[in-house]
Design brief:
Layout lengths: L1 E3 L2 E3 L10 E3 L2 E5 L3 E6 L4 E2 L3 E2 L10 E8 L3 E8 L2 E14 L2 E11 L10 E5 L4 E11 L2 E10 L4 E8 L2 E2 L8 E2 L19
Antiparallel strand pairs: 1-2, 3-4, 4-5, 5-6, 5-7, 8-9, 9-10, 10-11, 12-13, 13-14, 14-15, 16-17
C-alpha cells in the first residue's frame, strides 16, 4: 500500500519493475493497470488500463518503454503462454487518459522475461529490440539483444557474457543486467526555476 497525503491506494509499485518518464510524468506498472505520477502536481493520477491482451487472465509480465518522447509502449508476456510477446503503443497518453494500438505480436519460441531487461521499438521498420540475460549453459549468462519483426522476422545478437557480481552476503549469484535502452531525447531548453 502507498500512502500519499493521508490517502490510501489499493495498489503497489514493485521495486524491481521498470518505470519510464514521458512528457514530464513517470509511469509505473501495477497489477493489471499502470499509474502516472504527475510531477507538476506532485501526485498520483487515477489507475489507467493496460491494453486488452486478448482477455488473458492470471499472471502476466509487463515492461514499459517509450517511442521518441511521444508515446508509451508496453511489452506483455503471459505466464501460461511464455513463448509469445505482444507490444502495444499509445495513441493518446496523459495523467488520466490512455488509448492503445497493437504494434506487434511475435512467437519467440522461448521465454523472453520482459521484466529482466528493457526494449525499444522502431515504428517505421515495425521491429522491436528486447535486451535480456540469456542462459546458454549452466551458470553462464549472456547479455543478448533479440530483434523481432513482422511475419516471423527474428534475429538474436549476443552482446557479451554477463559479468558475475561478487556479493558474499547473498546466497544467490548476481549478474550485470542486460543493456538498458532509452528513447530519451536531450533538449537544449532550460527549465525555469523559481
Amino acid at each position: 500500500m502507498i500512502q500519499v497525503s493521508n490517502i490510501m491506494f489499493d495498489w503497489q509499485i514493485r521495486s524491481h519493475r521498470h518505470s519510464v518518464s514521458l512528457k514530464g510524468n513517470a509511469y509505473f506498472t501495477t497489477r493489471g493497470f499502470f499509474v502516472c505520477f504527475d510531477f507538476t502536481t506532485e501526485s498520483f493520477a487515477p489507475l489507467l488500463p493496460l491494453p486488452p491482451f486478448h482477455s488473458y487472465c492470471g499472471l502476466h509480465f509487463t515492461s514499459f518503454s517509450c517511442v521518441r518522447q511521444d508515446d508509451l509502449t508496453v511489452l506483455y508476456q503471459h505466464w501460461e503462454s511464455p513463448k509469445t510477446i505482444e507490444i502495444s503503443v499509445t495513441d493518446k497518453i496523459g495523467p488520466d487518459v490512455v488509448s492503445w494500438t497493437k504494434f506487434l505480436k511475435a512467437v519467440t519460441g522461448y521465454w523472453v522475461d520482459p521484466t529482466a531487461g528493457s526494449f525499444l521499438v522502431d515504428e517505421e521498420k515495425k521491429i522491436a529490440v528486447v535486451f535480456v540475460l540469456e542462459r546458454l549453459s549452466f551458470g553462464c549468462l549472456h547479455q543478448t539483444a533479440h530483434v523481432f519483426g513482422q511475419d516471423g522476422y527474428f534475429k538474436s545478437v549476443r552482446i557479451r557474457e554477463a559479468p558475475y557480481l561478487q556479493n558474499s552476503s547473498s546466497p544467490h549469484k548476481r549478474y550485470y543486467p542486460p543493456l538498458c535502452c532509452s528513447s530519451y531525447l536531450p533538449s537544449l531548453l532550460q527549465l525555469q526555476s523559481n
